[in-house]
Specification:
Number of domains: 2
Number of strands: 12
CATH architecture of the largest domain: 3-Layer(aba) Sandwich
CATH class of the largest domain: Alpha Beta
Order of helices and strands: HHEHEHEHEEEHEEEHHHHEEHEHH
Structural class: alpha/beta
Bound molecules: pyridoxal-5'-phosphate
Number of helices: 13
CATH topology of the largest domain: Aspartate Aminotransferase, domain 2
Distance between the termini: 36 Å
Helix content: 40-55%
C-alpha cells in the first residue's frame, strides 16, 4: 500500500493521474506531420510558463544536469572564465561540471544557509575590467538547503557593475512552481527538468536562451554533439528531431503546461507559497529551525529542517520510510545527517501536505525528539484554514473557498 502515499522528496514529484494515463499512449512516429506540429505549440506554452516572449526554447531527452551541460557547452569556449556562488550541493555540481569542461571558474564561497550573494557578484564583476568573465551562474533554488536566491537583485548587481556577462540560471527546482520571470529579470539562459514543477518523470531537460545567449553559440568552441543546440534548432525547425525524441514525455509536458497555464502561473506560485508557509509554521511549532538562515530566502518548493544536536536526520527519514512508507529528502552535502527535507512542489494539496507533516511528526516522536504531538500539524491546519488561496491544480480538487476568520 505504500505506493498510495505521496512522496515528499523535492523531485521527482508526485505525478497527476491524468499525466500518468496520457503517457501510456501508443507510439507516435517522430517523423510524422503530427509530431512536427506538436513542437512549436509546446515551445509557446513553455515560453508562457517561463514568462518570456523572446527566448528560444530547446528540449533534450536528458535531465537538469544535461541542461547545465547544454548551457555551458553551447555558449562558452575552453579557458573562458565564469563566476559562480557555491552555497549547496547543486551549485557545487554545476561548478564542477564547468571545471571538467576546462573553464576557469571564479567561485564565490557563500554560507550554505544563505543565497547567492549579489554584492560579491557585483564586486567581482566590477574588478573584471577586461571582461574576462563570460557568464554568471546562479542556482535559483538550492534544493539541498531550501534557499532561494534573489534573481532580480543579481541582475541588478550585474547591471551596476556595467558587465555584459551572460546570466545563466539553474531553475530546476523553481521553474513552474515559484515566481520566475525570464524576460523581466534579464535572464539569458534558464535551465530546468521535467521531474519537478512540471510533475512528470525525469527525462527531459528544458533550456531557454535569450537572443544574447543564442548569439554566443556562434563563437562557442566547447565540444558537444548530443547537446548541440544549433543542430537541435535546425532539426526542430524542419519538423523533426536530431535523434529519437521522448515522444510520450513531450506530449505529457504539453499537457502539464496546460495544467499550469489553466491554473495561472502566478497562482501556481501562490499555491506553492501557501503550502510552504504551512510547512514553515509547522517547523516553528516543533521548535526546530529551517536551514535558510533568513526566512525571506526560504524556498517555496522544499524546506530543509535542521535536526536538534545529537539526532541524525538520516535515521529520521529512514524511520519515516520504513515504518510509514513515506519518503522525505535526506540531508545532502554539508547538511548530511544534520537536516532533512520536505519537498512540497508539483501536484500537492493542503491535505497531502498535512499528511506529510503528520507522518514526520510520528517519526520524530518515535525517535525521541522533544516535540509536542500534533503541534506542527495544528500550526499548518490553522494557516491552511485561515488563508486559503486555492491549493490544487485547475482540474484536480479545486479549493476555492473563502478564508475563514482565525
Ligand atoms: N539543479 C538543481 C537545483 C536540482 O535540484 C537538481 C536535481 O535535483 C539538479 C540541478 C540536477 O538535475 P537532474 O537530477 O535532473 O539532473
Amino acid at each position: 500500500m505504500r505506493d498510495a502515499n505521496p512522496v515528499f522528496i523535492p523531485g521527482p514529484t508526485n505525478i497527476p493521474p491524468q499525466v500518468l494515463r496520457l503517457m501510456s499512449q501508443p507510439t507516435v512516429d517522430h517523423r510524422s506531420a503530427e509530431f512536427a506540429q506538436q513542437m512549436p505549440e509546446l515551445m509557446n506554452k513553455l515560453r508562457r510558463v517561463l514568462k518570456t516572449e523572446a527566448a528560444k526554447v530547446f528540449i533534450f531527452p536528458s535531465t537538469g544536469t544535461g541542461g547545465w551541460e547544454a548551457a555551458i557547452a553551447n555558449t562558452l569556449s575552453r579557458g573562458d572564465r565564469v563566476l559562480a556562488c557555491r552555497h549547496g550541493v547543486f551549485s557545487d555540481k554545476w561548478i564542477r561540471l564547468c571545471q571538467n569542461f576546462g573553464l576557469d571558474v571564479d567561485v564565490i564561497e557563500c554560507d550554505w544557509r544563505g543565497p547567492a550573494d549579489p554584492s560579491q557578484i557585483e564586486a567581482r564583476l566590477a574588478a573584471d575590467t577586461q571582461s574576462k568573465i563570460k557568464a554568471v551562474l546562479v542556482t535559483h533554488n538550492e534544493t539541498a538547503t531550501g534557499v532561494r536566491s534573489d534573481l532580480p537583485a543579481i541582475r541588478h548587481s550585474i547591471n551596476q557593475a556595467g558587465h555584459d556577462a551572460l546570466l545563466m540560471v539553474d531553475g530546476v527546482s523553481s521553474i513552474a512552481s515559484m515566481e520566475f520571470e525570464m524576460d523581466s529579470w534579464g535572464i539569458d539562459i534558464a535551465v530546468t527538468g521535467s521531474q519537478k514543477g512540471f510533475m512528470l518523470p525525469a527525462g527531459l531537460a528544458i533550456i531557454a536562451m535569450s537572443e544574447r545567449a543564442i548569439a554566443a553559440t556562434y563563437s562557442a568552441d566547447l565540444p558537444k554533439f548530443f547537446f548541440d543546440l544549433r543542430q537541435m534548432d535546425e532539426a526542430v525547425a524542419a519538423g523533426g528531431y536530431p535523434y529519437t525524441p521522448a515522444t510520450q514525455l513531450l506530449s505529457a509536458l504539453s499537457f502539464s503546461c496546460d495544467l499550469l497555464l489553466n491554473e495561472g502561473i502566478d497562482r501556481v506560485a501562490q499555491r506553492h507559497f501557501h503550502i510552504a508557509e504551512g510547512v514553515r509554521l509547522a517547523v516553528a511549532a516543533w521548535g526546530l529551525e529551517i536551514c535558510a538562515g533568513d526566512s525571506h530566502f526560504a524556498s517555496d518548493t522544499v524546506t530543509a529542517i535542521m535536526v536538534p544536536p545529537g539526532f541524525d536526520s538520516n535515521k529520521l527519514t529512514q524511520r519515516a520510510y520504513e515504518r510509514y512508507g513515506v519518503s522525505f529528502g535526506v540531508g545532502l552535502g554539508q547538511m548530511a545527517g544534520k537536516a532533512f527535507r520536505i519537498g512540497h512542489l508539483g501536484q500537492l494539496t493542503e491535505v497531502q501536505a498535512l499528511s506529510g507533516l503528520a507522518t514526520i511528526e510520528m517519526a520524530m516522536l518515535d525517535l525521541g525528539y522533544s516535540i509536542k504531538a500534533g503541534s506542527g500539524v495544528a500550526a499548518a491546519q490553522n494557516w491552511y484554514r485561515t488563508s486559503c488561496v486555492g491549493t490544487s491544480l485547475s482540474n484536480i480538487n479545486i479549493c476555492e473557498q473563502e478564508a475563514v476568520p482565525a
